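Morning!

This is the sequence you dropped in the shared folder:
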Amino acid sequence: MIRLNFTIVLFLMLAFSSTKAANERQANDSIKKIIKSEFQNVLDSVHVKGAVLVYDPQLKIMYSNDFEWCNKGFLPASTFKIPNSIIALELGIVKNDSTVFKWKGEKRRLPVWEQDLIFRDAFQYSCVPCYQEIARKIGAKRMQEYLKKLDFGKMKVDSSNIDVFWLEGESKITQFQQMDFIYRFKNKKLLIQSQTYETMKKLLFIETTETGNLSGKTGWAIRNGNNIGWFVGYLDYKGKTYFIVTNIEPEKEFNMDMFPMIRKEISLKALMLITEK
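The structure's back. Tokens below.
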């Protein structure tokens, strides 16, 4: 019996994944797009610009205040912790959501990072040093292979930027690409182990609100002096799932002290506009 080596197997998996993704995107051409001016009102009310993108798969409708903005590419920032976590779990670099990341006593940007953190808390506290450690252990070659397999935006990664490429440089992902990725994750269309999927569901869960069970990840990048805020996730509500990707920039009048929480608040308000329609 002829035994296929790892490279050939990986190539076949990637080819299958790319073909499957292309076919699914062709099917998605039938998705209706509706401008939702109420989303713009939400952004204007808190002095930010950008776009909110919501997908209702039950009705096959995408809602946004600005579909052109949704096609712009931005650094993924901490939303990259989703694929970074998946790759770490797939490779066994992280065993489960309780794997401990030891703090060595060095000064870190946020006090909450200055402690030993289990994987779940490292994800939810968005611990950059923890995920830089993960990225270095993955390495540039394996990172490139898995990002191609997962089809996550256009990441520019090599050995020189392995621990910062999602925070600075030329890596880009659009809201539509983020939406495609989180939809494929939720619907188990990524080629990952079932245990990885179950662990990631735990990491992504944020809270139960009156609107339903919210899961997702925020991100914050600074590029050329501009602050870029992300929220990528989904809402399980009354037996249905709604997907959301928010990308915003603060206006001059915006109070930056509010930036850490405003991304999720905007997203919840937008979801309420859809679920209560």
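Headline: Residues 1-30 form one domain.

More detail when I'm at my desk.
O.
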